[in-house]
Amino acid sequence: MIVVMNIDSTAKQIEAVNKQLDKLGFKTHIIRGVNRIVIGAVGDRQAVDSSLEQMPGVERVVPIMKPFKLVSRELQEENSIIDVRGISIGGDSIVIISGPCAVESREQLLAAARFVKKAGAHILRGGAYKPRTSPYSFQGLEEKGLQLLKEVSLETGLPTITEVIDEYSLERALNYVDILQIGARNMQNFRLLKKAGQTGKPILLKRGMSATIEEWLMAAEYIMCEGNDKIILCERGIRTFETYTRNTLDLSAVPLVKRLSHLPVIVDPSHATGDRQLVLPMSQAAIAAGADGLILEMHPEPGKALCDGAQSLDPGELVRLMEQLHKMMPAVGRYMAQ
Ligand code: PEP
Ligand code: MN
Q: Are 224 and 263 in contact, with CB atoms under 8 Å apart?
């Protein structure tokens, strides 16, 4: 439920209500918006009687009908903005994350990072622990890959993101990168979600390939329940009967999730399509649909990529994509982050 406080309620009154909720066994979360202050309270509603509504400073008590509470727009009207080393994700500006599917070597990652930076993208991606369909495929450089991400970040100034696939890789990655990615295959790894929630680090949560929007938002709720509200959602395509594309990009999920939740939503047109020629049109469509950013695979030499070469842009394609986005963004009231 949500306890809406009067806009002029005092810190003391808010504290008293918060204490009372705590006593009744609720997990609370105070949100100070521009127009209102609310206390999100998750717990057994039966424990509450009308005395709560009569406490000084309380305007009203409203139940949240959706199964997801903390991530819901009902709780927080304003968009959440996640700060990653000075880059805001979830505001009016669009943030572009790009880089190779997997970290392969120092030379490859540094070259990729330089192209990413030159093209005007903001954050470097690179997988060190790769969740591959085949056990015979390249599994990633693991901790060596994390070290390279850190080195290249220091050299280029780009913040970094990498995927974590279990509690071990999560603990390792904490010391090396700025954002932890939980991939499609682990979207419902609930222990991993809880661990991610305990880190306080920004988390990019991809939609599972067969997950409904509600399951995806419930996964985000797991992270937020542990006290971490720095969550970025990522639509990366879902499984359908279509075989010409790797997945089917569910673009309607973008405005829908933005209506249901205050969290930023970005799109991954690379894994959604599996085809570099589809990355530009789907990127444009994603921004038009209201996405707050994109995560794009690029490789200095896609033909030589150890992983996902067919969907990776080459450096020139990334530059052209950025130029095209610059042109179309003003038409939908957005602009490229600096
Ligand atoms: C990735 O980003 O490299 C990846 C494996 O993505 P997904 O979890 O969306 O398949
Ligand atoms: Mn990939």
A: no
Nearest atom in ligand 1 to the alpha carbon of residue 186 is: 8
Burial of 185 (0-12, 13-18, 19+ CB in 10 A): middle
271 lines ligand 1 (CB under 6 A): yes
Q: What is the average pLDDT across 51-55?
A: 92
pTM of the full structure: 0.95
Is 75 or 182 the better-scoring residue by pLDDT?
182
pLDDT at 31: 86
Instruction: Report the C-alpha gap between 104 and 279 in whole angstroms.
Output: 22
Q: What is the pLDDT of residues 103-116, one digit of tens each?
A: 999 999 999 999 99
In a mutational test of the pocket of ligand 1, which residue from 165, 248, 268, 299 has the highest number of ligand atoms less than 8 Å from its CB? Answer: 268
Nearest ligand for residue 185 CA:
1
C-alpha distances out from residue 323 to 119, 274, 277, 316, Å: 9, 22, 16, 11
The count of other CB atoms within 10 Å of the CB of residue 39 is 22
Fold that domain 2-62 belongs to in CATH: Alpha-Beta Plaits (3.30.70)
Q: Which CATH number fits domain 82-336: 3.40.50.2020, 1.20.1260.10, 3.20.20.70, 3.40.50.720?
A: 3.20.20.70
Over residues 131-148, the mean pLDDT reads 96
* Shortest-distance Cα residue to atom 8 of ligand 1: 183
Q: Is the pLDDT of residue 14 over 90?
A: yes
**Centre of ligand 2 from the C-alpha of residue 297, in Å:** 7
Each domain of the chain, given as residue ranges in start order, spans 2-62, 82-336
